[in-house]
Amino acid sequence: MPHFRQRTTRAVLLSGLMLAGTAPAAAQTAADYQALRSKVDELQRQLDTVQRALTAKGPRETPPVMAVASPPATGTAAQQQQGPSDPLPRPAGAPSVLAQGGPSALPAGYGFRIGETSFRISGFIKGDLVFSRYGDGDTATNPLGRELSLPQSIPVGGRRSGILADASAKQSRIAFQTATPIGEKLLTTLIEADFQVAPAVLGGERALNPYTFGLRRAVAGYGGFAIGQDWSNFQYVAALPETADFVGVTDGTVLVRQMLLRYSHPVGNRWTISTSIENPETVSAMAGAPALTDNDDDSVPDLTGQLLWSAKGASLSLTGLFRSMRVDPANGRPAVTAQGYGVSLAGIAPLPTGKGDDIRFMITGGRGLGRYVGANVAADAIYDTVNDRLVPVPLLAGFAGVRHFWTGTLRSTWMGSFQQIWNPSLASPLSTRQVWDTAVNLFVSPLPRLDLGVELRVSHRELVNGASGMLERLHFMVKQGF
Fold this sequence. Notes:
4-stranded mixed beta sheet; mainly beta; Porin; 16-stranded antiparallel beta barrel; DcaP; 44% strand; signal
């Protein structure tokens, strides 16, 4: 074969030189032909020299044009919230490597590569069938609370509703990730979207059920820094239990995605510290009024910090938040401000059953935390129109969940969550005072990345004036990850 390539190369070179000769072929003399032949031989010797040099260096590694991506894990609420599992190795519960940049070594089979950049597309298709019955009233048409566990949407003071059925695939999700080695680190990006919290077209359930594609996360990271829209550093997403519901323990968990700049740094093998500045937004209520208002008057970013410990499937996160809230009154008075703060402790504790069972928990407390906890059940602060001041609202919230594996593919989680709000005296009697929720589910994964689940839930809401409402829900779901 090498001799064949040499003969072919020689013939091509000879033909080219003959075609490019300065004299017509008919006028070539034997001397002219011999001169051309000498030139071809010299070029062939040079090619042979180059070929021997390349062979001495050994075979050249060619980057794969495409490789099959490692499938993302599916099932837990934390994975549902974060989207695809981080493909980079990291301690259990550690911050997302792809969201903050990491080591320049990607695991084998990570996506496909174009040039120096590796790409990965992942996500899941999720279908939900939800049966709800409200004990004290009915809801408006197509409210978000008919598909998600949102305690503030539970009606109070009415008559018992009938059984209400809702079905959709709007929680289906897609994520697009990239990783590019720069120096000894990776420049990473993540864009993630679904159809869950975007508005549906009016009358959409009559025929086509269209929903708007909505941004969840868009974040870039390098060398421990991350910038973009991501889960708040005040929230420990990994502690969320596995649920059929979008969140499952909404009443008692920190739950915020927003624009931020975060820096994370490992301390030893088990500790990680991180800090962030995040988008500020004060959500207030007027004295005597239950409605919550977005003010968009803030001028100082929210500040957070986290200390995370993780080892052998266990993790413990301690986070803190400080914020400066501001409202510009519509009556022309000067802006009023107040400070808010909070502390949250969350973690995962494996159980000594040898089956992968664990306990997940979170407890959060502070003042002026309303929009950070429970999808904004409580106001951050009440605006006192008489004394022209902002009064932060204190709250305490938490959840716990216990997961048990019956077999390798069959498991259950029991969970309970609560939120207690201490509204000031100038708050409306129709403001929420407390909410609680409990649920139990059963999941099975008959095929890789395929989850089938059923969940039974009971939720309760109570107002300042003592009125209350209940929700009973049966939720079926199927989810196929890719």
